[in-house]
Amino acid sequence: MSIAINQPIQQKPLSFEEFLTRYGGDNRYELIDGEVFDLEPIGLHEEVAAFITARLCVQIDRTGLPWFVLQRGLLRPSNIGMTAFRPDVAVVDRDELTKEPLWSDQSILTLGSSMKFVAEVISSNWQNDYARKVEDYAVLGIPEYWIADYAGNGGTRHIGKPKQPTLSICTLVNGEYEIQQFRGNQTIVSLTFPDLKLTAEQVLRAGR
Predict the structure, then answer these.
(1) Which residues of 36-69 are buried (b: 16+ CB within 10 A; e: fewer)?
(2) For the segment 19-54, what is each residue's pLDDT rounded down to a tens digit?
(3) DSSP β-bridge partners for residue 168
(4) What average pLDDT score do residues 6-15 get?
(5) What gap in Å lies between CA 25 and CA 36, rounded to an integer?
(6) What is the largest CA-CA distance in the chain?
(7) Which residues are CB-contacts of 207 (< 8 A; sequence separation ≥ 6)?
(8) Beta strand 115-121 with 108-109: parallel, antiparallel or unpaired?
(9) How confident is residue 7, by pLDDT bands cut at 50, 70 and 90?
(10) What is the pTM for the complete model shown?
């Protein structure tokens, strides 16, 4: 997701149920393979997430689609074990929520089909967002995944040299993500929101 310390904050792996009991009410934590990560979002991180949210809400309203933006709800994939992701931004299909077993009682999604779009905003710890989540979100069938690396913190294998602020847009094609990167004044291309008129810099600088 965003800033996460490199080591889990507990020694003993937690089940999802244990995680929910201890940390479920606090949206700064997520669980990956039994390890709890403290996301500790900083100010600019939150601005970028809020900017993306605001622009997507406008697009959803214009199209009249039965979608809404969920910020920091839990995604607990039923096929990935002791894991509960907390995307910075997620676009949810309201029509799919009747299939969700936990939604009526808690802000927890279990099915990739419920989500049309996710975005993660990168801060200091980027490994899970560029590697693990690229694989898992693709397996879940989420059509589009944005990685907003506003400070250029990602590894050079992901954003190249010299490192610079980069928006990576992952589009699902035949079960795998095709990744296109945007920087500076390049106009972004989103298949989920084709009428979105933004440059990479506008997103990564939160419209400043």
Answers:
(1) bbebebeebbebbbbbbbebbeebbeeeeeebeb
(2) 888 887 777 888 988 888 887 677 888 999 999 999
(3) 147, 181
(4) 66
(5) 14
(6) 47
(7) 51
(8) unpaired
(9) very low
(10) 0.90
Nearest-angstrom CA–CA distance, 22 and 10 = 11
Sole residue written with tokens 């039923």: 78
To the nearest whole number, what is the mean pLDDT of the chain? 88
- How many residues are there in the chain? 208
3-state DSSP: the chain helix, strand, coil percent, rounded to 5?
Answer: 30, 25, 45
Cβ proximity of 196 and 59 under 8 Å: yes
Residue in this structure with the two tokens 């972004």, named with its chain if needed: 188
CA distance 64 to 70: 17
Mean pLDDT of 57-74: 92
| Residues 40, 159 contacting (CB under 8 angstroms) | no
Q: Which helix (H) or strand (E) holds 60?
A: helix 43-63
Q: How far apart are CA 68 and CA 50, in angstroms?
A: 14
d(CA 121, CA 148): 5
- Taking only the tens place, the pLDDT of each residue in 77-131 is 876 778 889 999 999 999 999 999 989 888 899 999 999 999 999 876 688 889 8
Structural tokens at position 160: 């190249």
What are the angstrom distances between the C-alpha of 35 and each of 4, 12, 17, 85? 11, 8, 13, 11
Number of Cβ within a 10 Å radius of residue 196: 16
CB atoms within 10 A of CB 186: 13
